[in-house]
Design brief:
Blueprint (H helix, E strand, L loop, with lengths): L1 H13 L3 E3 L3 E5 L3 E6 L3 E3 L5 E4 L12 H4 L12 H20 L4 E4 L4 H14 L4 E5 L7 H14 L2 E4 L3 H13 L2 E2 L6 E2 L5 H24 L2 E2 L5 H6 L20 H15 L7 H5 L22 H12 L7 H10 L2 H5 L5 H5 L3 H15 L2 H7 L4 E3 L20 H12 L1
Parallel strand pairs: 3-12, 6-7, 6-11, 7-8
Antiparallel strand pairs: 1-4, 2-3, 4-5, 9-10
Helix pairs in contact: 3-4, 3-9, 4-9, 6-7, 12-17
């Protein structure tokens, strides 16, 4: 739409036809993969769109210049953005796989929305016979999500495996805790203590670095990274665990876009319920501890209806938002308006200014801290937004920074 507004205005102001000619294909700089959509377009001297070629297809058309002025304008497309995003992802995955000569795909399937959408996407590209889904339950995975994983695999008609990980996770923890750590200077011995948080990361690494990497090699393909953009923004992932994979096809989509993509594929691409409604309805959860029990409504610490939009303001706004900007909006009561999220979420999630500030600093510290280290080591990301991580969003590990004005606003709000 923006393309048509800009070029239509230029054709109208110049009083001559204008032709926008675009390539199809991929540009890959190693960290960010861009798709070129084609969609070459002809505008008459009135600025009307009189011919548009298909997205992601090579095509040729001939237009008589003398007749273009009187040609009827094409009707404006009523397609939702998610339709264009789906075609970009499908084309980008297909071309990327062709370029690296990969024909088989392994996906760790959890019963959650991200891996389910990834599975439905890749099944359309490589075919279900070349897709292996692997469910890797621990003691924290519910019968609900295990059942939903099976249902998804049945709907796709792909290859499916269940490989429990609890025994190997317990073995790793036992080795770490029971093997003495010897101080070679004094001869004293101590033992490591594996915390519940460390145990969560051991689970994630066991799934990816051990099971999925081994399964992919044996299957003759590669395994995917299923992270979305909210998780990528704040590093809600495990290095060498679920942050691993050969391509992060969903890492430029916010969580709400992943849900929209699930609905679109069910309704328009497959024409049937492939991504089970139960996966769409269930609370998003990593299921790495009892504190993330989906049957009890417990899930991720990210409140996606709000944080999707907060994180997006850090990355995709033309003038990227800073904590100072967000506190100015909070003081003025315009946070939801400036972020574009649903009204009332700030009060719902953060009853006090202290709660709001604590949440803001938690995620800003991660976004500008550890998450950068994870993004540097992340797989390449397939870009669909105005600013994707990698080439579009240059960053370095410089640490969190807060302006003097931010500190003044914080002190003022907390005093109130």
């Amino acid at each position: 739409d923006k393309r048509n507004r800009i070029f239509g205005r230029q054709a109208r102001e110049a009083g001559v036809p204008l032709f926008y000619v675009n390539c199809i294909g991929l540009q890959n700089n190693g960290k960010t993969v861009y798709t070129f959509d084609g969609s070459s377009t002809a505008y008459n001297e009135k600025g009307d769109v009189v011919r548009t070629l298909p997205e992601y297809e090579e095509a040729l058309t001939v237009l008589p210049l003398a007749e273009m002025k009187d040609m009827a304008a094409e009707p404006e497309s009523e397609e939702k953005d998610i339709a264009h995003i789906y075609r970009a992802l499908h084309y980008g995955i297909r071309r990327f796989l062709e370029n690296i000569h990969m024909k088989k795909i392994v996906i760790g399937i959890s019963g959650g929305i991200d891996s389910a959408v990834a599975a439905a996407l890749y099944a359309k590209v490589v075919g279900p016979e070349n897709l292996l889904l692997v469910n890797m339950p621990s003691v924290f995975n519910s019968a609900t999500t295990k059942g939903l994983s099976q249902e998804l695999a049945n709907n796709l008609g792909c290859q499916y495996m269940i490989i429990p990980i609890q025994e190997s996770v317990d073995h790793t923890i036992k080795q770490l805790e029971e093997t003495p750590m010897v101080n070679l200077g004094t001869g004293s011995e101590t033992h490591l203590k594996v915390s519940s948080f460390v145990a969560e990361n051991i689970q994630a690494r066991d799934r990816s670095a051990r099971v999925l990497a081994g399964a992919a090699a044996a299957f003759g393909g590669g395994f995917t990274c299923n992270a979305n953009k909210a998780e990528t923004t704040v590093g809600y992932s495990t290095l060498y665990g679920d942050q691993s994979g050969f391509l992060a096809a969903l890492a430029d989509l916010w969580k709400y876009q992943v849900y929209a993509l699930a609905h679109y594929m069910n309704d328009a691409v497959y024409g049937r319920e492939v991504v089970p409604q139960g996966i769409i309805d269930i609370v998003p959860s990593a299921e790495l501890s009892s504190a993330q029990n989906v049957d009890e409504g417990k899930g991720d610490p990210i409140k996606y209806p709000y944080h999707d939009y907060l994180f997006r303001s850090f990355v995709e706004r033309w003038q990227k938002a800073t904590p100072e900007d967000v506190l100015e909006w909070y003081k003025a009561g315009t946070v939801e308006k400036n972020l574009g999220c649903e009204e009332g979420l700030v009060k719902k999630y953060f009853p006090t200014a202290a709660d709001f500030i604590s949440d803001l600093e938690r995620w800003w510290n991660l976004f500008t801290g550890m998450a950068i280290a994870k993004r540097i080591q992340a797989p390449p990301i397939l870009a669909v937004s105005r600013r994707a991580y990698g080439f579009d969003h240059r960053e370095a590990q410089n640490g969190a920074y807060y302006t003097r004005r931010y500190r003044e606003l914080k002190a003022e709000l907390l005093a109130e």
